[in-house]
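Researcher: Next entry in the queue.
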Amino acid sequence: MLSSVVSLVVLLAAGGDAIPYAKRWDNTTSNAAQPPAGNCPAGFLNVVFNTGAPKKSGWPNKIWDSLSSNHVSNWIGFSLAPLSQNPHYNTAAGAAPSYGPIDAAQIPICMDPNDITAAITKVTSPNAPTHLELFNEPDFSWGGVTPLTSAPDAANSLSSLINTQTTTQWLSPGPAFTSSSYLTDFNKACNGCMDKVHIISAHVYSVDPQGAIDQVKGLHNTWPDKKIWVTELAPASGAEQGCTYDQAGMIKWMQTVVPQLAALGYVDKIFWNHGEYVS
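Model: Structure for this entry, 279 residues:
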């Protein structure tokens, strides 16, 4: 499924080729969404950097410079540590180099219960991050990389972190499927601790543009008082999962979905999955 990561900002006349990567899909169909007019607000456009995925020449410094020059503000990756300190982001030559602009733009994730102690240290440090996501897809272990964690177990594990005094704002756990009851079950198990969570993290995959928009609207109906960050966004990972878009089709999907999400008023950021292939 060919696409353009920088075509995420095609409304701003950007360019550049990439291959997006996604883990799941939702082939729900509904009335076709139509691309609205308008531009994205500042900070709205962001990307995912996947661990372990092959990296193109220029990774990571030149790739980030290309993305940020096209109005991409932040990146989220499957890591609590900076990119240069996580071996899963290594290049063929070794550790990815430390690069100030990349480090400053990272939205870290407390990936699973094994990260709790390090996450508390991070959010109480002098350089505490502005935001931290609480567990990545605890209901779906992608390739066995992260453990499955039930909502009650997640509530128990995250209690000490959520109650830590910090300036860091919390993103909710990011379930694999927006329609699941994971977050409501988590909230019940932690005695309403979602009151302390500032932002809902959503992973949105749908070949049908309207299906992607409807997923986000459904999440808002459940959490009407929360802002939403779509921390993973793509139609699918390949033709075998129902996606047959060529580059032009992918750009049209983006031109349809991205402005409509921006126009909802409660989606503050989207993160295109993924960003490491841009050149």
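Model: Confidence is low (pLDDT under 50) at residues 1-30.
Researcher: Noted, moving on.
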